[in-house]
Design a protein that fits this description.
45% of the residues lie in helices and 17% in strands. The chain has 13 helices and ten strands. The chain has helices at 17-25, 44-54, 69-79, 96-112, 171-176, 189-194, 224-229, 231-244, 253-276, 280-296, 298-305, 308-313, 318-335, and strands at 4-10, 31-38, 59-64, 84-87, 93-94, 118-127, 134-136, 147-148, 167-170, 203-215. Strands 1, 2, 3, 4, 5, 6, 7, 8, 9 and 10 form a ten-stranded mixed β-sheet that branches. Helix 9 runs antiparallel to helix 10 and helix 10 (280-296) crosses helix 11.
């Protein structure tokens, strides 16, 4: 059986998808590479089929009607035959040597009968024009080179959250937890990481720079212009995450606290882009979002409101909004998230 099924969601990706595919091919027979063509109108499907013909038993080309990034991930998960699943966006790639080490470790753990539900590795921001690359690592938050549980985790600093770029989930866990990603919606990678968390009992962290996260195309969903244009989708994802779990039923305190902080980040991102749009309509939507949270879960509302990010996100005064915008500029420079 394949160790990792790598799902590459593709939409009109002919210009850059081959780099992602080629780096994953370095994993050899332990890899299943599922290229999901999400209704492209360029040569994406043709390229996917060429790789499928050249690497039978490793590469699979899946064609489907356009449904968006999340729908493409779900299509890949539905047909994955590997033990683990890694999503690699078509404009990103992995470091071959690091992939080799991850596969070696997973094979070792599987042989011992001690394979984790989730493996975490570092990721690197490959931002155009930046010589010094920002590495997101988890040394202070997660034990290294051992199986551990949520009770063993430490404090996650700002910018250190587990994202799709850093996570590899057990396929059976993703299916059993009822993972569902909405169609035609951006930013669902947050749901992909967040929804399965309460089902994760065991983890393993490797302090290696596996994933390379490319930032530099004008049409990327994470540019400030596109974040503002698609803010309704960001808000939708935030609400779906809030509704995904009753956090107060989660007994493991460190997991619950981590998930609360994750939702705080989501509320902050939604609030800042609603604010930065500058329209009265979106300022009203910002207020409505916080009112929604309060009505849905008063305890969660209070918990998030008590944090620095939460309190500044709620700011209604011009002075408060100004402080919030200044904080955003600093965070953007430090963490290089778009």
């Amino acid at each position: 059986m394949k160790v990792i099924s790598a799902v590459i969601p593709c939409y009109n990706s002919e210009a850059y998808m081959e780099k992602a595919i080629n780096t994953l091919l370095s994993g050899g027979e332990d890899m299943e590479i599922i290229i999901v063509d999400d209704g492209s109108t360029d040569r994406t499907l043709e390229i996917a089929k060429r790789y499928e013909a050249e690497y039978p038993g490793i590469v699979r080309a899946v064609h489907k009607e356009n449904g968006g990034h999340g729908d493409a991930v779900m299509a890949g998960l539905a047909c994955a035959e590997g033990l683990y699943l890694k999503v690699v966006d078509s404009d990103d790639w992995v470091k071959e040597r690091a992939l080799e080490e991850v596969l070696k470790k997973l094979r070792e753990l599987l042989k011992q009968g001690n394979a984790p539900d989730m493996l975490v590795a570092n990721y690197v921001y490959e931002k155009v024009g930046e010589e010094k690359k920002k590495v997101i690592q988890y040394r202070s938050a997660l034990p290294q080179n051992q199986i551990f549980t949520w009770a063993d985790t430490g404090h996650f600093h700002s910018g250190q959250y587990i994202l799709m770029h850093s996570v590899i989930y057990r396929v059976s866990l993703l299916r059993e937890c009822g993972l569902s990603l909405p169609k035609h919606t951006f930013y669902v990678d947050n749901i992909f990481v967040y929804q399965p968390l309460p089902s994760v009992k065991t983890m393993y962290y490797m302090d290696i720079n596996l994933y390379r996260y490319f930032i530099g195309r004008d049409d990327q969903s994470v540019t400030e212009e596109n974040m503002i244009k698609r803010i309704d989708q960001q808000v939708r994802v935030t609400k779906l995450m809030i509704e995904a779990h009753d956090l107060w039923k989660i007994k493991e305190k460190r997991l619950r606290n981590y998930m609360v902080k994750y939702l705080c980040i989501m509320m902050t991102i939604s609030s800042i882009y609603l604010l930065k749009s500058g329209t009265e309509e979106n300022l009203q939507k910002k207020q409505e979002l916080w009112e929604y949270l309060k009505a849905y879960d008063k305890r969660l509302y209070r918990k998030i409101s008590m944090t620095i990010l939460g309190s500044s996100s709620k700011a209604e005064s011009k002075a408060g909004q100004g402080i919030f915008k200044a904080g955003y500029k600093i965070a953007r420079k430090v963490f290089k998230f778009n």
